[in-house]
Specification:
With about 425 residues, this protein is α/β, with parallel strands linked by helices. The chain has helices spanning about 10-20, 30-40, 100-115, 135-140, 145-150, 205-215, 215-220, 260-280, 305-315, 335-340, 375-390, and strands at about 45-50, 55-60, 65-70, 120-130, 155-165, 170, 175, 180-190, 230-235, 245-255, 290-295, 300, 320-325, 345-350.
């Protein structure tokens, strides 16, 4: 069984990335650090794809092409972990483990590059900006990513999980993560003095009523045997104590597994926005606009490849690789998978206290107290290393003539969804 080992520089790289987090499409320092490391390890690096994105290729001659993706960006949170290497950037934090993903990918790639017995083929590393915004992968594709790298036989990606302890990996054959859509409702009015509440529309009240009503869409408009989430994660209404806000912007996030549910929810959101506009004395289309900002397809694991990888992980590493139900988290790696039309596997890496049971084993991802257990980096590095090595050796069951993803299945009545993704992806 292979030991969980790290390149000597990997922990320092991880801590440096954690200290200097950068938001989406601003990851210049982060991309520079990874470009330097991968160039040093023998990879040919191309920068500035999709803004701050980069790719790195190791060419060992004829053979399979194995791609792996990691994310560059952090979140707008003030860190409160108390770590010695805590973020030094005010209001920005790696609260979703992207720093660990990057260090693990770089470490795994370096270990493979150093092997004289590495099977022939090419390793393609995709370091993507703005995963948290849901638009980084699309921007890389729009900027020519698919044409810039060898076409992969498989695309690998992993994500830390605070719902599993260190030493546990988890994945799903078929649909793994939900599709996500982000919309924005904006409204404008003349404003006015708060002492004259009857002198015009109150945009904050409009936004508050809209928020309440949108949160009932799933409970009242979506059939109870389906699963979906409609959330209002943000509202902006610049104002002052004596001023009725002259503008408001409401962000709406939708997560679904099935296209029919997505279409139902989009229709209901449109109807609710129109109705609340009328109730507030606003004209939809003039005073109020509804725009669709981004759409991320659901993540589909190629079942046969995922099953091969799970078995290989358990055979070669001191880990367990569990099968879990789909999760309502999302990840725009799905955009890359569709753009390449390739087989894909996405798995979770437990980051909680060793020996714990599945379930919350530490502060969740996307919170200001999230910090992976120190042993997580070695597990994630080994998991990615063995996955890439298996791909090069032809052990993952990939076949260019076979379908690139598992058949679309109806998950509407398969029972409760996993909570694993709630502490993972965007």
């Amino acid at each position: 069984m292979t030991a969980l080992r790290l390149p000597g520089w990997a922990p320092a790289l991880y801590e440096s990335l954690h200290r200097g987090p950068e938001l989406g499409f601003q990851e210049h320092r982060t991309a520079g650090l990874l470009a330097d490391v991968l160039s040093r390890e023998g990879f040919a690096v191309t920068r500035a794809i999709g803004g701050t994105g980069l790719v790195a290729v190791l060419d060992r001659g004829p053979g399979p092409v194995v791609a792996a993706r990691a994310e560059l960006d952090a979140l707008p949170l003030q860190e409160r972990t108390g770590a010695a290497f805590a973020s030094e950037e005010e209001g920005v934090m790696h609260a979703c483990g992207h720093d660990l993903h990057l260090a693990a990918l770089a470490g795994a790639a370096a270990q493979l590059a150093a092997r004289p017995d590495l099977p022939g083929g090419r390793i393609v590393l995709i370091l993507q900006p703005a995963e948290e915004l849901g638009s980084g992968a699309a921007r890389m594709v729009d900027d020519g990513l698919v044409e810039a790298v060898p076409h992969p036989d498989v695309l690998l990606s992993q994500h830390v999980s605070a719902m599993a302890p260190v030493g546990v990996l988890a994945s799903t054959p078929g649909t793994a993560l939900a599709a996500a859509e982000t919309l924005t409702v904006t409204a404008g009015a003349p404003g006015g003095h708060t002492g004259l509440p009857d002198s015009g529309p109150d945009l904050v009240l409009f936004a508050a009523n809209l928020t309440q009503r949108l949160h009932t869409v799933v409970g009242r408009d979506v059939p109870p045997f389906e699963q979906a989430v409609v959330s209002v994660p943000g509202m902006v209404a610049p104002s002052a104590p004596g001023l009725r806000a002259p503008s408001v912007a409401v962000t709406v996030n939708i997560r679904t597994f099935e296209e029919r549910v997505r279409e139902l929810i989009l229709g209901r959101v449109d109807s609710v926005v129109r109705a609340e506009s009328v109730a507030a004395g606003l004209a939809f289309g003039e005073d109020v606009q509804l725009t669709r900002d981004s759409r991320v397809p659901r993540v589909e694991n190629t079942a046969r490849v995922r099953d091969h990888l799970a078995a290989l992980h358990e055979a070669r590493l001191p880990v367990r690789h569990l099968t879990v139900p789909p999760a309502l988290a999302s990840d725009d790696v799905s955009v890359l998978v569709r753009a390449f039309g390739t087989a894909a596997v996405y798995w979770f890496v437990g980051s909680g206290e060793p020996g714990s049971r599945l379930g919350p084993v530490g502060p969740a991802c996307h919170t200001d107290a999230y910090l992976p257990h120190p042993a997580t980096l070695a597990v994630a590095t080994a998991a990615m290393r063995e996955a890439m090595l298996a791909g090069l050796a032809g052990e993952l069951g990939t076949d260019r003539s076979a379908p690139s993803t598992s058949p679309v299945r109806d998950h509407g009545s398969t029972g409760p969804r996993s909570r694993l993704g709630s502490m993972g992806s965007a």
